[in-house]
Design brief:
The protein is an alpha/beta fold. The chain has two domains: about 45 residues, no CATH class; about 325 residues, Spore Coat Polysaccharide Biosynthesis Protein SpsA, Chain A. About 30% of the residues lie in helices and about 25% in strands. It is built from ten helices and 19 strands. The protein has an eight-stranded mixed beta sheet, sandwiched between helices. The chain has a three-stranded antiparallel beta sheet with strand order 1-14-15, with no helix packed on it. A two-stranded antiparallel ribbon has the order 4-5. Strand 17 and strand 18 form a beta hairpin. Helix 1 crosses helix 3 and helix 4 crosses helix 9. The longest helix is centred in the C-terminal third of the chain and has 20 residues. The N terminus is likely disordered. GO terms for molecular function: UTP:glucose-1-phosphate uridylyltransferase activity.
């Protein structure tokens, strides 16, 4: 079967509305055909996700530490960050593509966290506090319209609508393990958003250019459910300084690992420091020897994102409607293999915590009072 025939067979098996969604959201038919052919050939194994090359733990000085609170050094970085924020050079890049299955299948960003304020409301409030800070909001095909309606219903939580730049990530097609188009019981189960690794590609369809045209130079990316990852001037100032003085293009926030934590970690691959997801480490490598993992909160120098990146496509097995499916996904953390990157350890407890993801309703009930106290204290500073 030729590549063209394989593409046609997939597209022709889809409904008109599904094809329209794919065409409107960056679906690369030729790339999908290559990935599907590799799956169907049986040559693609999950072990292929493992990185090639020599993998080593980070050196002791590969992960920076924040300056002591109240120190001269902290004040220097704070002022540098404040200058960039006041000048409108910083934007908040919020990942809002997830449907909260553990919240009952609702749009995660629209879930109320504190009275009258959702996850999205908190992200808008953080940006609003800095006046000229735009929010670049990456939605998925499933969250885009509900998110826009939510923001309009709440008057953008006091944010100037002109400062909100929504854009949508890509869409792809779920397959069975045999490489056929998956059809589940639930409507809409065939299509999915293929991971946050398409953020650069999606930004490049207009939002990044709009941000740069307004004088934007730096972006702080975070998940919508991690409301503590705010536009802290010290975090901003540290990246600005590293960008201007060392040519750093990406800053990665890491925290100390706790039991059960999973995620990407700093590692050296053939000597190059980067994020390596847990499933990419060689089987013989003991990942417990790396004490930190990344929070998916990154700062980027926006100009660096105007380049193209050949990120790895991973084969991911999931359960949908009780059935096994295959998805092809990319991860934003792999940008660290292409950009000049620094790692900085941030707190995950106390008033300075920058990492408290809320994945379940139980998490929200457990941490709501803590979030309210932290946010109130930060607002008073």
């Amino acid at each position: 079967m030729t590549r063209g025939c394989m593409v046609s067979s997939v597209m022709e098996s889809l409904r008109d509305e599904e094809r329209a969604l794919l065409q409107a959201h960056g679906f690369d038919e030729a790339m999908f055909a290559r990935l599907r052919a590799r799956l169907r050939s049986g040559a693609w194994q999950e072990s292929d996700n493992q990185v090639r090359g020599q993998v080593e733990r980070p050196a002791p000085d590969d992960v920076e530490v924040l300056p002591a609170p109240g120190s001269v050094r902290e004040r220097e970085l704070h002022e540098r960050g404040m200058a960039a924020l006041r000048a409108g050079e910083v934007g908040a890049l919020v990942l809002n593509g997830g449907m909260a299955t553990r919240f009952g299948g609702v749009v995660k960003g629209c879930v109320e966290v504190l009275e009258g304020c959702s996850f999205l409301g908190m992200k808008m409030g953080d940006a609003r506090a800095w006046g000229r800070c735009p929010v670049l909001l990456m939605n998925s095909f499933a969250t885009d319209m509900p998110t826009r309606a939510h923001l309009e219903a709440h008057d953008y939580f006091g944010m100037d609508p002109e400062q909100v730049l929504p854009f949508t990530q890509n869409v792809s097609v779920r397959l069975t393990p045999e490489g056929e188009v998956f059809r589940g019981r639930a409507a809409g189960s065939t299509l999915y958003a293929p991971g946050h690794g398409d953020v650069v590609e999606a930004l490049g369809r207009g939002a990044l250019q709009a941000f740069r045209a307004r004088g934007g130079r730096y972006l702080l990316m975070s998940n919508v459910d991690n409301v503590l990852a705010d536009l802290d001037p010290v975090i901003v100032g540290a990246h600005v300084e590293a960008a201007e003085e060392r040519g750093v293009e990406m800053s990665v926030e890491v925290v100390q690992k706790l039991a059960g934590d999973q995620g990407g970690m700093p590692a050296r691959v053939d000597g190059a420091l980067q994020i390596l997801e847990a499933f990419r480490f060689p089987k013989r490598f003991d990942v417990s020897t790396i004490p930190v993992f990344n929070t998916n909160s990154f700062m980027f120098s926006a100009a660096a994102l105007e380049r193209g990146f050949e990120l790895t496509w991973f084969m991911v097995h999931k359960r949908v409607d009780g059935a096994s499916v295959v998805q092809f996904e990319r991860l934003a953390g792999e940008l660290s293999a292409y950009l000049k990157t620094r790692f900085v350890e941030v707190p995950r407890s106390g008033v300075r915590s920058r990492f408290l993801p809320i994945k379940r309703r139980e998490d929200l009930r457990e941490h709501r009072a803590f979030l309210a106290d932290v946010l109130a204290e930060r607002a008073a500073e």
